[in-house]
Every structure is written in structure tokens, then in C-alpha cells.
Design brief:
24 helices; about 850 residues; single chain; alpha/beta; about 20% strand
Length: about 850
């Protein structure tokens, strides 16, 4: 990855927008004006990392400090990695193109175990030694954070420190500590000793691990002043301001919307759920502050959808009032609101009515188990009647598609429980009104006994049994109105090993990285045989970590305190075996899990709001002459040339929303600003002569329209001219286009151009999947002028069928190689 001023590799890779780094609201500072430079690393692809709420929050918190510059880096896709290694170039930050080895601090987001080899790959490509013990004072300090840190041991040897729990406050304490250590030229040992003093910070070097002959942990030996490390808790979400200017991605990402966390933690107590344990207690965000932030953030970003995030969104007390207030404000701008997976018993008709005011965003129910008995074992506390009632209401409100989540391999699961998944799915389909066309998206995941849950001692099914059970369920679900998705058994197997692993897995990770294991969370990249070889080479039996653990066995994470007591987890495990439910503490009082001290750390709940937070703004008076249409001529230059057509369309839509102009919207299921685009440019081609039409709900002077849009457009896009259309016009005629072309090498020979122009016909074979085509290129070239061996002008005609890309035409005329063609700098000067 490199900065926008050094994108000389983008023509060689797929999806170059992953690596542009000049997104809307990205922070650029003068490196000479800051005292600490920090890179936030997300060990997965850009489209995953940019979807993660936590990284964006830390990015904003750090960059509010004038003396700190926080940048970002994401895992490279295989094509970029190969290019970097071939050219012996380092992995660098997005914002400035600085190699990772030159930062003071690297902050790593550890969201899931299948990203561990990605992290090693990023460190290796960035020029940073993998092991903390191999780094000297010239190397960056490497600190991790995220839910995977609650069993830090498999990756402990790669980190100077790891943060347990909430990072909003501790991140600035870490930055200050590293800045002081750097200024005082301290040793690595002094750094570790200082880090150990911070609440919620685990320093692996301050603990030694002993194992018996069978590989079972025998002792966790403190080397410093702490015997355990307790998680950091942000007692009130409202104390830390949300980002005023959230990042806007350059390309489509996994969760491409404005996300806001309205609550953290969950009191439901599902016994398989690690997040429900480690994020306790519940802390809710103020609804009025949330509403104000959403309005401001939409103005700063232009997103068309807002997602309210929480582990149990339906339990957020003020949800009904917040939803109505949001929709009163957002529906005129055609901004939708979506909710994540909901408990069936919290989904009300009023919520559905609000959500569908703009469009019916996805609706997800999470029964998790196919039978009531198994739901009681896992403490889901959800009856079949409640599930069916929610499905019926959703179908009646107009939803045709519902998403369902189920888990396979839960403790004490039977064949009847697995059959119950199919039976429940079919019951839900049958609940749809007659004449409708209901569909289900069913997601299947396999149970992993995560640390700090009541099931942390349970056995995980091995690879073959996991695969067998998945096939058993998904084969039963085969019918035309059910689409089934599942995590592969191999991914579940790997995640299970590293979820409950220990430090003996560090050599396995190094060996797997050496053998090319990357992007293991992506099924198309997972290389199971290479992993088997890595385990064998390191002398580690992976299935050792899947076994049931005796209750008196020392667990590799026993020195890590998530706040939930061991006694509570054991009691919950016993209640599971008795098929007893445990009530929600926010309803039935404290269940004595150990997290709350009833002083600083406790439930922080907002008052429920039945009515909207504030009256909606008055609707604008209808304009009988609307819409008002304008034809815009715009340039697409520099880094914007790497936006694919759909990426550019999305970017322009968001720019229009940010502009504050009176937009006119299309009708239908998915309302969008009324914009017509013409003639998509090939990726990498620049232009001074692109055209689009925009419809507005009120008239705007042409010069105001131009200046307003240019203030909000991303780098490389610029409006050159706006003209009011007094009547509807067809697409602008583009019978030919004039291009200026520059090559870094002298490849344009005058003799080749003269020979081409002398021909009456110049047949070129164009390869197509079904059948090759022979096309006449000569008839499409209206003019060709070689200015010198590195520059030329090409006038290329257009016709209804059989057109040529500029690179294809020049390749044929001058016999260019693929590399030479990709390196051409092409600018469309005008069209006619």
C-alpha cells in the first residue's frame, strides 16, 4: 500500500481502490508537526477492515490530538502481496505511504482468530520482526486489541502488549507512554514494565508458561507485579465523542453504511456467546445525542443507510422513539435505517412500520437452535411461538425475505435438534400470507467453545464430524425458496484450535505463514493442507485443543480477567445441563456474574421513550415545476481514474447527498438521486469530457451548482460546466473521442502508425468466452498522430457494436505487451 502520490503499482492489480487512501474524511497531517506516528492495522482486506466500527473510532480519537497522526493499513490481497515481494517494496500506510517499520506504534485490531496469519504477513511485508523478543528500540511498538485478546496466548509472542476490553481511553494512555519512552530512549524491557502499569494492558513478556509432558498448562508464572490482568471498562459510552467526520470508503465494502453503536454489552446470557460475556455490563448511548450525531455524520459522509448496532438491539430501551425520530428526519432524504440480528420477541409492528418508510432493509431473526429444548440449554430464552409471531408480522408488513441464524454442534445436540432447524424454517415459510413469495436466507455456523463462556470447557467436534453435521442440515434445507450459507468446517476447525490455544501455537503460525497461508477467513484462500503441514512441522497436534477440558485444568487464559467470575460460568454450565434458563438481569435483577461493582461499573440504561425525541421538521412545499434538470461536464483525473464505473457512481451519489443540494429522488424499492450517467470509462483512463445529468427538486444557479459540488467531490473528480436543460434531452452524442496517450517507455513508432494508416482494413482478433471475433480496427480510427516515441493522439470512432478500448487499439497497432499497455497514461480530451 502506498500514498496517492505514488500509485505506480495500481495498474497491475485488481480493485485498486482498496489502496488509494484518500477517502473522504481521511486525516492528513504534516509528519514534521507531530511527535508520535501511529498506524492502525486491520489484518484483513480493506472491505472488511473499513466495515469495522472500532478502528474508525480509534482513528478519530487519536487524530483529535494535534501531536499524534494515526494512519491505517489493511492486509494486501494476494496480487498486491506478490507485486510488493517481486519489487522488494514494503507494505506502507494508506495516508502517507510510510513503511510500517518507520512508525512509532502499530495498533492491531484482533477481531477473529482466522486473521492471525494476515497479521504476520503484514508485519513481514512492513519490515517488522515477527517476534517481540527480536525487536530492538528502533522498531515500532506493537500492541493488539479486540475480542480475540481475551485468549491472547496463541499470538502473545508477537506483541509488546495487548489491550483487554474497551480501548477508547486506554489508547491515548498508550500513545502518551510510547511517546515518553521514545523521547527518553528507553530499553524494550523498560517499555514492557511501563506498559504493565496501565489498567487493562497485558504484557506477554511479564508472564511465563509451563506445560506438562502431555502439553497441558501446568503453571502461569508472573514475571512482573501482576498475577492477573483485568479488562478495561468504559463506564459510560456518552463520555467519548463519536467521530465527527467518519471515513467514507473509496469502494464498496462489506457493511457499506453509516454505523452507530447505540449500546454495548448484553444481559441475555446466551451460554455460547463470548461477546455477551466479555462486553458486560450493558451501557446504552443517549438517544438524543445519537440522533444529533447521525444527522451530522450523514451530512459529512453522504451514506444512504444508517445501521443501529448492538449485541441485542431490541433491548435498547429508547429504540422505538429513536427509530421514529430518525425516520422523521431521514425519510425525506431517502435514507434508510437497518437493524442487526434481532431477537424474535423484541421485534414489534411499530419498529417494522418505521424501518420500511424508506425501504425494507434486511430483517434477521436468530433462533440459533432448532428446538425449544436446545434453546433452553444455551439460554436463548426464546419460544417457538415468539419466533413464529415475529415471522408472521414481518411477512404481513411486506417483507418477502427473512434471514435466519442457526448454530450446529452445540453441547448436548441430537439429530432431532438438527432436524428441527429444517422444520422451523419450513414453518416460518408457511407463515407467509397466501399468494406471497416468501424466501429465507439461512446461515449455519458451527459451535466453537469460546473462552470466558459457560461452555469454555466443552468439546468441539472434529473436522470430519463438523463437516458431516453441516452437510446433514444443509442438504435437508435444499428447496428453491431457501438459500443456505455456512462457514466451512475447515474454518471452524482452525478457529476452534486458536480460540482455546496457548503459546505453543506461535511456531505453527510462523510455519503456516511461511507456507503461504493467508486470508483464512475467505474460503477461496484457505489452504487446509498447508495448515496440516504447519502443525506437523511444529510438532503440535491441533485436535488436542478441541478436547473437553476437565473443570480443574488450568486454562491458557486463566490469568486474563473479563470480569465474569469462574463461579458464575460454572453455575451456568450446570444450569445448561439441567436445561434451566437464567433470566435477564435488567429485568429480574442481578444474577451475580461478577462484572458490576455497583459503583463505577454497572448497568447504564437510558430512559425508554414512547414518543419521538423531537417533532419532525415540516415537509417542504411541493414544487409543480420539479424536477429541474442539469447537464454536467466533469473531469475524472489522477487517483479518480482508478474508480470503476460503479464505484464512481456510488461516490457521486454520496457527494450529491453531502452537498446539501435539493435532490430529486427516483421512486421504487431503492430510491436514489436522479442522475443519468453516460459511457463508462475503462478503469485507469482519465477524462476531461465526461457527462452526466442531475435532477433537482428546486432550481439552483449553474455556477452555484458547480462550486457546491466541487467542494464535496472526492479527489480527482471535478465539475467543469453545468447547463440547465429546459426540456428532457437524450444522451449526448459521442460518435468519436480524442485521446492523448503517454507511455513511460518509447513504444510509439512512427513507421508502425504510418503503416496502420495506410491500410484500408486492419483486422484484429478479439477473444471472447464463447467465440473469438474478427473486427476491423482501421475503420474506427479517425486520426492517429505520433508526437514522439512516448506521446501520441488517437481519435477513435464509436459505433453501436464492435468498439475497441484505447489500450486494445494501441496494443494491436504498436504490438505492445500486456505490461506496456497497462502502463499507458490515457486522457480523453474531448468527445463529439
Amino acid at each position: 500500500m502506498t500514498c496517492a502520490d505514488n500509485h505506480n503499482f495500481l495498474h497491475r492489480i485488481q480493485r485498486p481502490t482498496r489502496y488509494l487512501g484518500r477517502e473522504i474524511n481521511a486525516v492528513i497531517k504534516d509528519p514534521q508537526a507531530v511527535s508520535l506516528r501511529l498506524a492502525l492495522l486491520f489484518p484483513d482486506l480493506y472491505e472488511v477492515g473499513m466495515s469495522h466500527l472500532g478502528l474508525g473510532l480509534l482513528y478519530a480519537i487519536l487524530n483529535r490530538e494535534d501531536h499524534i497522526w494515526a494512519e491505517r493499513a489493511y492486509a494486501p490481497a494476494p496480487d498486491l502481496e506478490a507485486d510488493l515481494r517481486a519489487r522488494r517494496r514494503p507494505l506502507t500506510s494508506l495516508e502517507s505511504g510510510t513503511p510500517l517499520s518507520r512508525f512509532d506504534l502499530l495498533g492491531v485490531s484482533l477481531q477473529y482468530e482466522l486473521g492471525y496469519t494476515n497479521l504476520l504477513n503484514m508485519l513481514d511485508l512492513g519490515g517488522v520482526p515477527l517476534l517481540a523478543a527480536d525487536r530492538d528500540d528502533s522498531h515500532p511498538v506493537v500492541i493488539g486489541g479486540g475480542p480475540a485478546c481475551f485468549n491472547p496466548e496463541p499470538v502473545a509472542l508477537f506483541f509488546d502488549a495487548l489491550v483487554l476490553g474497551d480501548g477508547e481511553e486506554v489508547i491515548l494512555e498508550l500513545a502518551a507512554l510510547v511517546a515518553d519512552w521514545k523521547a527518553n530512549r528507553g530499553t524494550r524491557r523498560e517499555l514492557w514494565q511501563a506498559l504493565e502499569e496501565l489498567e487493562g494492558v497485558y504484557v506477554p513478556a511479564m508472564f511465563a508458561m509451563e506445560f506438562d509432558a502431555a502439553g497441558v498448562p501446568r503453571a502461569i508464572i508472573p514475571q512482573g507485579r501482576r498475577s492477573t490482568v483485568s479488562k478495561r471498562v468504559l463506564d459510560d459510552l456518552n463520555r467519548i465523542a463519536l467521530p465527527a467526520f467518519p471515513l467514507v470508503p473509496s469502494c464498496q465494502i462489506i457493511h457499506d453504511r453509516l454505523n452507530v453503536e447505540i449500546s454495548r454489552g448484553c444481559t441475555r446470557g446466551c451460554r455460547y456467546c463470548q461477546a455477551g460475556m466479555i462486553y458486560r455490563p450493558v451501557r446504552e448511548r443517549n438517544p438524543a445525542a445519537t440522533l444529533a450525531w447521525v444527522e451530522a455524520a450523514l451530512a459529512a459522509t453522504g451514506f444512504e443507510e444508517v445501521s443501529l448496532l448492538s449485541l441485542s438491539i431490541g433491548d435498547y430501551g429508547p429504540l422505538a422513539g429513536l427509530l421514529q425520530s430518525l425516520m422523521d428526519r431521514l425519510s425525506p432524504a431517502q435514507v434508510a435505517v437497518s437493524l442487526p440480528s434481532m431477537r424474535a420477541d423484541t421485534l414489534t409492528p411499530e419498529m417494522m412500520a418505521q424501518i420500511k418508510r424508506v425501504r425494507r432493509t434486511g430483517l434477521t431473526l436468530a433462533p440459533e437452535a432448532g428446538t425449544q429444548r436446545l434453546r433452553q440449554i444455551i439460554n436463548k430464552n426464546l419460544t417457538e411461538a415468539a419466533i413464529m409471531d415475529s415471522a408472521q408480522r414481518a411477512f404481513a408488513a411486506g417483507w418477502q425475505l427473512l434471514k435466519l441464524y442457526f448454530m450446529i454442534g452445540l453441547p448436548r445436540e441430537t439429530a432431532e435438534d438438527r432436524a428441527g432447524i429444517t422444520a422451523l424454517a419450513r414453518q416460518i415459510l408457511a407463515a407467509a400470507p397466501r399468494g406471497s413469495r416468501p424466501r429465507l436466507n439461512v446461515s449455519l455456523s458451527s459451535f466453537i467453545p469460546k473462552p470466558h463462556t459457560p461452555f469454555q470447557w466443552e468439546r468441539q467436534e472434529d473436522l470430519l464430524e463438523c463437516r458431516r453435521r453441516l452437510h446433514e442440515v444443509k442438504d435437508r434445507l435444499r428447496q428453491k425458496n431457501i438459500q443456505t450459507k455456512w462457514n466451512s468446517a475447515a474454518q471452524t476447525w482452525l478457529e476452534g484450535v486458536f480460540s482455546r490455544g496457548d503459546r505453543r501455537l506461535a511456531p505453527v503460525l510462523i510455519e503456516a505463514h511461511r507456507r503461504g497461508c493467508r486470508l483464512d477467513a475467505w474460503s477461496e484462500h484457505l489452504r487446509l493442507e498447508a495448515w496440516r503441514e504447519a502443525f506437523q512441522a511444529a510438532g503440535v497436534d491441533p485436535d488436542f485443543y478441541l478436547r473437553e477440558r476437565p473443570l480443574d485444568e488450568l486454562l491458557p487464559w486463566d490469568h486474563v480477567d473479563c470480569g465474569v467470575s469462574r463461579d458464575f460460568l460454572l453455575a451456568e454450565r450446570a444450569r445448561a445441563y439441567q436445561e434451566l434458563e437464567t433470566p435477564d438481569c435488567r429485568v429480574s435483577g442481578c444474577q451475580d456474574c461478577g462484572v458490576c461493582d455497583q459503583d463505577r461499573i454497572s448497568l447504564r440504561l437510558e430512559d425508554s421513550l414512547v414518543l419521538p425525541l423531537a417533532p419532525p421538521p415540516p415537509p417542504p412545499a411541493p414544487d409543480p415545476l420539479a424536477p429541474y434538470r442539469y447537464r454536467l461536464t466533469y473531469a475524472k483525473l489522477e487517483e479518480a481514474r482508478w474508480l470503476g464505473h460503479l464505484e464512481m457512481v456510488g461516490s457521486l451519489y454520496r457527494s450529491l447527498r453531502r452537498s446539501g443540494l435539493p435532490l430529486s429522488f427516483s421512486s421504487g424499492f431503492h430510491p436514489l438521486p436522479r442522475v443519468s450517467f453516460y459511457d463508462a470509462l475503462p478503469l485507469g483512463v482519465e477524462s476531461l469530457a465526461e457527462t452526466m445529468d442531475v435532477a433537482l427538486a428546486a432550481p439552483v444557479p449553474e455556477d452555484t451548482l458547480v462550486s457546491t459540488l466541487n467542494r464535496v467531490l472526492p479527489a480527482g473528480l471535478k465539475i467543469l460546466l453545468a447547463a440547465r436543460l429546459t426540456k428532457r434531452l437524450g444522451p449526448p452524442g459521442q460518435k468519436s473521442a480524442l485521446y492523448q496517450v503517454e507511455s513511460p517507455e518509447p513504444v510509439f513508432e512512427s513507421d508502425a502508425a504510418a503503416n496502420f494508416l495506410a491500410q484500408t482494413e486492419f483486422l484484429v482478433t478479439r477473444h471472447r468466452p464463447k467465440e473469438d471475433q474478427r473486427l476491423d480496427l482501421r475503420g474506427l480510427v479517425a486520426g492517429l498522430t505520433v508526437l514522439d516515441p512516448q506521446h501520441l493522439e488517437l481519435d477513435l470512432r464509436r459505433q453501436e457494436k464492435g468498439n475497441f478500448k484505447v489500450t486494445d487499439a494501441l496494443t494491436a497497432i504498436f504490438n505492445l505487451s500486456d505490461d506496456q499497455a497497462r502502463e499507458l497514461r490515457i486522457v480523453k480530451i474531448k468527445s463529439s
